[in-house]
């Protein structure tokens, strides 16, 4: 079967966005390059009613939404709707397994719970699911990573989840080498062949060459890679991350990225400078956050394109009487 015919069939039958080669596509076939931010919404603002309209002002086409096992899926339905209503793609991630490989099965249990699957299916036309935030430290071997995520993906597909699934690198999201080694194999194991892979660029060595080499290698492999988190410094406000070079190279290579993180309550306790805006207001964007959101030539404002498919969904939801959904 030709690759063009395969692409045509996937476009016709995919329930939502889908991966073809190294790119993400909307159901109507439009290529989508993610440009947006992370929002720690789960505890203080689970509906996103305050922050999402502020994020929307950047022109972002995606928001990665932090969620936790202790909060039922029924409660993230409102923030999914509110994100789409503002013309942005919701990406839900479960944060409990951060740095802890042993928690990956529990995260998958959450996703395949019938109540969770029901919510996902209701919104599968415009939803991306990031399986587990930064599961595993640097002790996770390539074989462990492959077998762990093969099982996770198989269980989720068997439960009826067919949206694109995003897999974070191990090593607290930093292990780009492992994604390059295992990503194509995992894509082949997925019955839907509908996976993306996310590196969190917390390497604070200011090494521009390392960024370019890693991103170019992903392109050579035809690996659907995105940068799911980055800031200007790492935990403890240590070092320097070459974030300007990172977004420049992502723009050159058509690779998606999401900055960490928007700010406002609860804020980044481990380094308050990671907050793009201390208040959560667009008007208060500052320093590196203002650069990547608005002023840099490769910022969200200057490079983000909202897909027509999401704009249509947004217009449909706006036709409803309530401005934003609560619960």
Question: Secondary structure elements and their pairing?
Answer:
Layout: H1 3-13, E1 18-20, E2 23-25, E3 31-32, E4 35-39, H2 51-56, E5 62-67, H3 77-85, E6 89-94, H4 104-112, H5 114-122, E7 128-130, H6 142-158, E8 165-168, H7 176-189, E9 195-201, H8 208-221, E10 225-230, H9 243-253, E11 256-259, H10 287-295, H11 300-303, H12 308-318
Parallel strand pairs: 4-5, 4-11, 5-6, 6-7, 7-8, 8-9, 9-10, 10-11
Antiparallel strand pairs: 1-2, 2-3
Number of strands: 11
Largest sheet: 8 strands, parallel, barrel
Which series of helices and strands comes N to C? HEEEEHEHEHHEHEHEHEHEHHH
Low-confidence stretches: none
Give the helix level as a range of percent: 25-40%
Based on the coordinates given, report the CATH architecture: Alpha-Beta Barrel
State the end-to-end CA separation.
46 Å
Count structural domains: 1
- What is the tally of helical segments? 12
Proportion of beta-strand residues: 5-15%
Report Rg: 18 Å
Q: Please state how the strands of the largest beta sheet are arranged side by side.
A: 4-5-6-7-8-9-10-11
Write up this protein.
The protein has one domain: Alpha-Beta Barrel (TIM Barrel), CATH 3.20.20.80. The protein is built from twelve helices and eleven strands. The chain has helices at 3-13, 51-56, 77-85, 104-112, 114-122, 142-158, 176-189, 208-221, 243-253, 287-295, 300-303, 308-318, and strands at 18-20, 23-25, 31-32, 35-39, 62-67, 89-94, 128-130, 165-168, 195-201, 225-230, 256-259. The termini are far apart.
Outline:
The chain has helices at residues 3-13, 51-56, 77-85, 104-112, 114-122, 142-158, 176-189, 208-221, 243-253, 287-295, 300-303, 308-318, and strands at 18-20, 23-25, 31-32, 35-39, 62-67, 89-94, 128-130, 165-168, 195-201, 225-230, 256-259. It is of the alpha/beta class.
């Amino acid at each position: 079967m030709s690759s063009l015919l395969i692409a045509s069939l996937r476009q016709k039958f995919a329930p939502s966005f889908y991966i073809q080669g190294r790119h993400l596509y909307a159901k109507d076939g439009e290529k989508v390059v993610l440009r947006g931010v992370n929002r720690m919404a789960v505890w203080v603002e689970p509906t996103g009613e305050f922050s999402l309209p502020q994020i929307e002002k950047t022109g972002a086409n995606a928001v990665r939404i932090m969620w936790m096992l202790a909060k039922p899926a029924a409660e993230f339905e409102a923030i999914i709707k509110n994100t789409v209503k503002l013309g942005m793609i919701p990406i839900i991630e479960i944060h409990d397994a951060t740095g802890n490989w042993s928690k990956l099965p529990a995260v998958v249990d959450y996703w395949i719970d019938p109540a969770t699957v029901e919510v996902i299916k209701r919104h599968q036309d415009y939803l991306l699911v990031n399986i587990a935030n930064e599961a595993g430290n640097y002790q996770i071997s390539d074989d462990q990573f492959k077998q762990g995520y093969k099982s996770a993906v198989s269980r989720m597909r068997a439960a009826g989840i067919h949206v694109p699934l995003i897999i974070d690198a191990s090593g607290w999201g930093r292990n780009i080498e492992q994604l390059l080694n295992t990503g194509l194999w995992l894509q082949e194991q997925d019955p839907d062949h509908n996976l993306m892979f996310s590196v969190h660029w917390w390497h604070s060595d200011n090494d521009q060459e390392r960024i370019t080499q890693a991103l170019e290698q992903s392109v050579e492999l035809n690996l659907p890679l995105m940068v799911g988190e980055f800031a200007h410094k790492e935990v403890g406000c240590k070092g320097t991350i070459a974030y300007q070079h990172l977004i420049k190279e992502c723009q050159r290579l058509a690779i998606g990225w999401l900055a960490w993180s928007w700010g406002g309550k609860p804020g980044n306790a481990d380094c308050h400078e990671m907050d793009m805006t201390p208040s959560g207001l667009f008007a208060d964007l500052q320093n590196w956050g203002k650069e990547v959101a608005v002023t840099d030539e490769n910022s969200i404002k200057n490079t983000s394109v909202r897909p027509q498919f999401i704009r249509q969904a947004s217009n449909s939801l706006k036709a409803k009487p309530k401005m934003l959904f609560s619960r």
